[in-house]
Amino acid sequence: MNDSTLILTLVAAIGLGTGLVFATVGEIITERAGNLNLGVQGMMLVGAVAGFWATFNTESLLLGVIVAMIAGAAFSVIHAFASVSLRVSQIVSGLALTIFGTGLSSFLGEAGEDPLVGNPSKATFEPILEGGLADIPVIGPLIFGHDLMVYVSWLTVAAASYYLFHTRMGLSLRAVGEDPASAESAGVNVARVRYAHIMAGGALAGAGGAYFSLALVPTWQNEPIGASGWIAIALVILASWRPWRALFAAYLFGAATRIGFTMQTLGEPWSNIPSSLLAMLPFVLAIIAMLVLASGKRARFLGAPAALGLPYFREQR
Amino acid sequence: MNLRNWRFLAILALALSLIAAACGGDDDETATTEASGGETETTAAPSGGDEEPLKVAFVHVGPVSDKGWSWAHDQGAKYLEANANVEVTTLESIPEGSDSQRVFEDLAADGNKLIFGTSFGYMEPMLAAAENYPDVVFEHATGFMSSENMGNYFGAAEEGRYLSGMAAGAATESNLIGYVAAFPIPEVLRGINAFTLGVREVKPEAQVQVVWTSTWFDPPVEKTAAESLLDAGADVIAMHQDSAAPGQAAEAAGAKWVGYNTDMTEFAETAWLTAPIWDWGPFYLKTTQEVAAGTWESAAYYGNIADGMVDLAPYGESVSDETIALIEERKQQIIDGTFSVLPDPIVDQDGNERELGDIFSMNYFVEGVIGSPTG
Fold it and tell me: Which of A218, A289, A297, B31 lies 20 to 30 A from B115 at CA?
């Protein structure tokens, strides 16, 4: 039962999706504060290389993830400074962050006499349980068979959801994203809130990047995350800016990736579908979801923050 | 604070972060011009007498530290440096496409007499550059275009594929071997077919299941492809990909792994069987000597196991002495020219005998392969 195609696909989806869960939840928090950060890919890569470096030198996975989060947050300050303080276009600033982060991560991986590139990780996240609970039909592999970071990602989703919708801070944050002028008149420091939540998004993107370099493909090679940063931005819309939906959106994307390969092994008629079409499947899915869910007025209804993407000028009302 | 001050601070912050990035390594000597799209590293070889060293340049698509394709070529350049009176210039991470023509012309203008381009997409830019610099010799890897002063070179990886297939055939117990492949082009199909024939020499009833990834390098995707094969019952994974991710998937599942390009043992020690690998050094030395002596002529060079351009990586611990002896025997026959890895006629996927045809436009699978040769 546990080696049926369905269960195996779902397990693979969770593995492929976990890095995306972190990055997507991070971007949801940033966007809820009214800031669109297109630098997710860059922040993930900087987090991935920083985390790999830390684990490579200390053999500690905990330190790896912490360093990745610090690096992601620190790196996101560039975007915060440009888009909040200088009020540069968020689009341009975020794109610059991605381009810079991509180059920086490759550069750091190759720097030094004994570069990181081409090395396997000194420690990797492994499934916590072998046998026992993990062998229970269906729920064993789906609930108990994962590595620690998968459970951390679930906790992160729960915490982010609680924070956004059930705390005073979350309320201020959403107010800033909906109507920064009103929020400010109610005593909320718009710039400070946006800075803090851009950095929170950066830290989570860093953790997402580290999941790739320390758990999914525990090696340092240039750009080990594929296009995950861009996918995360699309998943925010698919998840309609809600953390719990982000979890399932990320797993849906992971499942689509895996199904493309599974179909090729199932024999006819499935194997007659051209593999290049199957390779597009996850991306087509993301685009369709965005077009359907986010077109026109529906985006507002879905939960897109009203002030998303707009720089805030205190003097202008 | 007014806007001008903010701008100044922004520039300062950017500059500081760049400096911090440049100091990120332990050794600043190797850190050079990253922003221009590549690093330059010039080394003078031990001079062989009073003669002026020949200036030779290499242009790579990836970083030479990738432990894959570009790394293998750079090893060849190092071999050349150690064995000839040359001054080698290496340019890394140069994107393919029309912009690379400028790079080749800069190198030619800089006095390089022999320029190697090691990626397929340099083909047409290099041809254009060669026309503008008729006194410089150009050599292009993996392509098919040439001119008076531009030759091309590649190697018969299929010979290494066949031998590595024998190791895979000996290792499989489920008689299903998974093959993670990038794109359905002749080079890749040739490799899969030779590999399968090698597998079935040792295990006639074994089959090779192919999945296509549509990418040369994307570790999470490659890993997922390998996992789908493992879940379908494969207990050995082979690949025509540039990352080690399929090997890590095999290791995690307790399966075996045949790599590609270089010795990748360290990524999956238990899973490792062997891999077809490249040794470009002797070809680079031979070509350089011909250019120095003025005897070079434009040609399409196709290296193989006999001349050492293609070889097998060291065997993993699980490969038995018996299997190694079998593989080495076949290898010797290939070197002697008494064995051809792709026979003519050949039996295709549907069990029909057919002519081998031109192997450089191969578009079919042999018997024993499961999957579609069109992707």
Answer: B31
Confidence at A297, pLDDT banded by 50, 70, 90: low
Q: What's the CATH number where A94 sits?
A: 1.10.3470
B166 and B286 in a single domain? The answer is no
- Higher-scoring residue by pLDDT: A132, A245: A245
What is the pLDDT confidence band of residue B34, given thresholds at 50, 70 and 90?
very low
- Please count the structural domains in chain B: 2
Residue B252 lies in a domain: yes
Task: State whether residue A218 sits within 8 Å of chain B by CB.
Answer: yes
Q: CATH code at B337? A: 3.40.50.2300
pLDDT over 70 (residue B245): yes
Residue B3 lies in a domain: no
Per DSSP, the residues of A175-208 read HHHH-HHHHHHTT--HHHHHHHHHHHHHHHHHHH
- Mutual orientation of helices B219-231 and A5-32 as an angle, nearest 10°? 160
Residue bearing tokens 């079935």: B200
Which residues of chain A have a CB within 8 Å of the CB of B209? 265
Count of the separate structural domains present in chain A: 1
Q: Are strands B150-155 and B137-141 parallel, antiparallel or unpaired?
A: parallel
pLDDT, tens digit (0-9, with 9 covering 90-100), for A68-107: 999 999 999 999 999 999 999 999 999 999 999 999 998 9
> How many degrees, rounded to 5, is the angle at CA A227 between CA A223 and CA A233?
130
Which of chain A's residues have a Cβ under 8 Å away from the Cβ of B211? Answer: 261, 264-265, 275
State how far the Cα of B272 lies from the Cα of B247, in Å rounded to an integer.
8
Contact A120 B25 (CB under 8 A): no
Distance CA B69, CA B330 (A): 26
Token pair 């150690």 is at which residue? B82
Cβ of B213 within 8 Å of Cβ of A272? The answer is no
Same domain? B263 vs B290: no
All residues of chain A having their beta carbon less than 8 Å from the beta carbon of residue B65 are: 110, 115, 117-118
Is the distance from CB of A236 to CB of A24 less than 8 angstroms? yes
| Per-residue pLDDT at B33 | 34
Amino acid A45: pLDDT = 97
Which of 235-294 (A) contact B at CB < 8 A?
A: 257-258, 261-262, 264-265, 267, 271-272, 274-276, 279
**Which of B188, B221, B261 to mutate: most A Cβ within 10 Å?**
B221
**Residue B8 banded pLDDT, cuts 50, 70, 90:** low
Domain identity same for B217 and B352: yes
**Mean model confidence pLDDT for chain B:** 87
Element (H, E) at B333: helix B321-336
Crossing angle of the two packed helices A168-178 and A148-166, in degrees rounded to 10: 70
Name chain B contacts of A118, Cβ cutoff 8 Å.
65-68, 71
ipTM above 0.85, yes or no: yes
In a shared domain, residues B263 and B319: yes
Q: What is the pLDDT of residue A178?
A: 92
Residue A311 inside a domain? The answer is no
What residue numbers bound the domain in which A260 lies?
5-302
Q: Which of residues 74-113 of B touch A (CB under 8 A)?
A: 93
* DSSP 8-state code for residue B52: P
Give per-residue pLDDT as tens, B63-109. 787 777 888 999 999 999 999 999 999 998 888 888 999 999 999 99
Note whether B261 and B361 are same-domain residues. Answer: yes
Structural domain boundaries enclosing B264: 157-275+313-370
Across A236-248, average pLDDT: 92
Please give, rounded to a whole number of angstroms, the shortest distance from the CA of B225 to a CA of chain A. 6
